[in-house]
Amino acid sequence: MVQTEEVPQELVAGKKMSKVGTVPNAFLLIHDELIEDFVPMRELNRISVDDDILMEIDCSGRLVYPAWCDPHTHLVYAGSREKEFVGRIKGQTYEQIAQNGGGILNSARLLHETPAEELYEQSVKRIFEIMRQGTGAIEIKSGYGLTTEDELKMLQVIQWIRQTTPLCVRATFLGAHAIPEAYKNNTAGYVDLIINEMIPQVAAEELADYIDVFCEKGFFSVEDTERILMAGIKYGLRPKIHANELGRTGGVQAGVKYNALSVDHLEHLGEEEIETLSGSETMPTLLPGASFFLNLPYAPARKMIDAGLPVALASDFNPGSSPSGNMNFIGSLACLKLKMTPQEAVNAATINAAYAMGVSDRLGSIARGKIANVFITRPIPSMEYFPYMFGSNLIETLILNGEIQSF
């Protein structure tokens, strides 16, 4: 049994990330939707259970993990963007594609043309795909609407997913994802629209848990970001920020200043940002799938962990820069490209990822009283084997809310 906690923690930082609680030859007792107990098999006689209502799963030779938490995705989108993929193969940059009407604006056009019901059907297929890959909790952002009507449509679809699937779902309003065509030369006007129209309607309909801004050169400045975050906070939306993907923009500092739950991407990070994050309540969240797909630098995870910071991992599942929600592959990338150990990757994709979406009090580890979101692997020899076999599906059984999932 992997990632067990006798005393649950909010997060794990620095050197402690190299330690993962394990119980060999273990017994896990689930009652209703909660984890009731876990003990070594030799202590099984101290647990009293009613054999008439007991369903037993033999996990011989297998490992049991808490289900992955994925705290940064754009999973609700319409269509696909494989033509841009070919463009990058031929040498176009992410910024050039965006300037030519591709990128986020391309997804916004597709989403505008797609009815909410169809958008839900496309998105829920992706939900079941990531469930098969071991994900039990997910944060989903809006941001492909860029109009009040379409941003609300996205957030309503996220709510439908929350209501109709067994995953724990958190919703983030990301109206500040890109500058729409109608405001191409009027960024301040679009920021005003977000503040004065979008945020009040999102809050009135209780459609989002968090607010996010793409704080990058060519998108939203630190000043824009701070205006939007202050407006969101006024309506009870805690910040999360896209920061330092394309350069050192000041997004990390803005995130910590406004007590962001997480700052995400961080491919470009210096000593100043590390010092700013130290001692804060903001989780640095790394998205190696985007670096892999766009051939960008990887975030300096080793430097961050060695400086005592916590680190979370997320898939960044989206149609343009990371079209995969496979957290197993993200864990392998963390080991191969971020130079994290398998134990650090487990902590980053479970307890720290749960913290980055505000649910580490009930998910992210195997602990008494937490929600029973776990998966059982196929027979494998060790924890290290999991990221080592980066192309294999090693998950045999998924249990969410105490119930075995069938696909």
Account of the protein in words:
The protein has 2 domains: 14-67 and 364-404, Roll (Urease, subunit C, domain 1); 69-356, TIM Barrel, CATH 3.20.20. Helix content is 35%, strand content 17%. The protein has helices spanning 82-89, 94-99, 104-113, 116-132, 148-164, 187-204, 222-234, 251-257, 271-277, 288-294, 301-306, 327-336, 342-349, 351-356, 385-388, and strands at residues 26-31, 34-40, 64-66, 68-70, 135-141, 168-176, 210-215, 238-243, 262-265, 283-286, 312-313, 374-377, 395-400, 403-404. The strands form 3 sheets. An 8-stranded parallel sheet has the order 4-5-6-7-8-9-10-11. A 4-stranded antiparallel sheet has the order 3-12-13-14, with no helix packed on it. Strand 8, helix 8 (251-257) and strand 9 (262-265) form a beta-alpha-beta unit. Helix 12 crosses helix 13. It is globular and about 70 Å long. The relative contact order is 0.17. The model has no long low-confidence stretch (mean pLDDT 95).
Q: Which tags fit this structure?
A:
single chain; 407 residues; alpha/beta; Urease, subunit C, domain 1; TIM Barrel; 2 domains; 4-stranded antiparallel sheet; 15 helices; 17% strand
What's the short story on this structure?
The chain has 407 residues and is of the alpha/beta class. The protein has helices spanning 82-89, 94-99, 104-113, 116-132, 148-164, 187-204, 222-234, 251-257, 271-277, 288-294, 301-306, 327-336, 342-349, 351-356, 385-388; strands spanning 26-31, 34-40, 64-66, 68-70, 135-141, 168-176, 210-215, 238-243, 262-265, 283-286, 312-313, 374-377, 395-400, 403-404. Helix 4 (116-132) crosses helix 5 (148-164) and helix 6 runs parallel beside helix 7 (222-234).
